[in-house]
Amino acid sequence: MDSAKRQMHKVTGSAWDVTAQVYERDLERDIGMLRRGEISLQAPELGYLNNLGSWCKRAVHLQCAGGTDTLSLWKLGAAEVVGVDISAQMIAVAELKSMALQAPARWHCCDVIDTPHELDGAADLVYTGKGALPWMMDIEAWASVVARLLRPGGRLYVYEGHPLDWVWDMEASTYQLSPHTGGYFSEQVAQDRGWPMTSDPIREHADRDRLHVHERQWTLGQIMNSLVAAGLRLARFEEHPDLFWNQFPNLPADLASRLPHTFSLLMHMP
Ligand SMILES: C[S@@+](CC[C@H](N)C(=O)[O-])C[C@H]1O[C@@H](n2cnc3c(N)ncnc32)[C@H](O)[C@@H]1O
């Protein structure tokens, strides 16, 4: 990946590092939830992540944020979980959770693109999504990381926001094209589009004007083709009407449910 893209990842990571305070506030709530055996994974994900105990010795969660989803994979049966995130504060929050739960978890603070090679070829499951791919400036570099982490026969499961949502005006009360984010096929990199820039820790930060995030949308074709080119094979692809965050607060539920807002992508390494 070229140095300009690396630099954009670094800048974006610094903003997420500030937003980690939001995740820190939920620390005790999330520990309590996991301790009770409850998990944070959402309904469409569960069909793809069942029976982990029978096949998943190691799950690697790319862009794990505060680690609650990562530790949910352990609760679902993964023998060991590994979380990777560029934000040191997010990783610190994740570490506090796994220590409190005495979970078999390891955490790495780095750009996804620099995921340590010691993890290569040993993941039964690579899991990512729910606001992960748009922060990637080079989808092929990302796909090659997924490919090197998976053991032969290992699975990739992505549950991510549907790229079609990129085109809609997030404030509108009907489906209306956003004047800011261009079209579905746009290669445009948007700066400071919404969350996490609207989070309290960023809005109240002394150096707020120096904090920025860079994001872009990848089409379904670009995502799948980058993974195929890296050596993975498609097992199942599904689009869902479910939203994983309150992205369109003014859109009536009956309209929301008529179009896809998330997708599931299951691929495997031959
Ligand atoms: C919306 S959060 C993902 C949340 C995650 N799905 C969860 O709930 O567990 C996005 C995360 O991506 C991380 N991130 C952004 N760019 C990254 C990069 N280049 N490498 C690694 N992590 C990155 C951020 O630090 C943040 O924790």
Bound molecules: S-adenosylmethionine
Topology, number of strands: 9
Q: What is the CATH top level name?
A: Alpha Beta
CATH topology: Rossmann fold
Strand content: 15-25%
Number of helices: 10
Main pleated sheet: 7 strands, mixed
Order of helices and strands: HHHHEHEHEEHEEHEHEHE
pLDDT < 50 stretches: none
For the residues shown, what is the average pLDDT? 96
What is the structural class? Answer: alpha/beta
Radius of gyration: 18 Å
CATH homology-level superfamily: Vaccinia Virus protein VP39
**Strand sequence of the main sheet, in spatial order?**
3-2-1-4-5-9-8
Bin the helical content. Answer: 25-40%
What can you see in these coordinates?
- This protein has a single domain (3-268), classed as Vaccinia Virus protein VP39 (Rossmann fold).
- The protein has 10 helices and 9 strands.
- With 270 residues, it is α/β, with parallel strands linked by helices.
- The protein starts with a helix and ends with a strand.
- α1 (3-25) crosses α6 (88-101), α2 (27-35) runs parallel beside α6 (88-101) and α7 (139-149) crosses α9.
- It binds S-adenosylmethionine.
- S-adenosylmethionine (SAM) is lined by residues 9, 12-13, 16, 63-65, 69, 85-87, 90, 111-112, 129-132, 135.
